Known about the structure:
By secondary structure, the protein is α+β, with helices and mostly antiparallel strands. Helix content is 16%, strand content 40%.
Amino acid sequence: xxxxxxxxxxxxxxxxxxxxxxxxxxxxxxxxxxxxxxxxxxxxxxxxxxxxxxxxxxxxxxxxxxxxxxxxxxxxxxxxxxxxxxxxxxxxxxxxxxxxxxxxxxx
Length: 107
C-alpha cells in the first residue's frame, strides 16, 4: 500500500495536467479569467501597483511588475493545473485552472 501511495503521489506531482485557463485574484477577489488558448497581454492593477500578464503558446507569465523585488517576474511561465504566480506587494495571484475540471481555492 505504501509503494502504491508513493507512486500515485509521484505521478500527480510530476505529471500534472495542462490547465485551460488562468484566474487572476487581486486582494483575494477574482478579477479576471483568461483562456490559455488565446495569446494576449493583460494589465493587472493590484492594491499597490501594476503587473503585466502575458499569455502565449498555452503558458502564462508575469512579464513586468513595478514592485521592488519583481519575484513574480522571476517565477517564469505556468501552464499546469494548480500552478500559480504570486506578487505579494501588489496582492496579486494568477493561478492555472481547468484541465481535469479541478478548481483550486487559493484564498
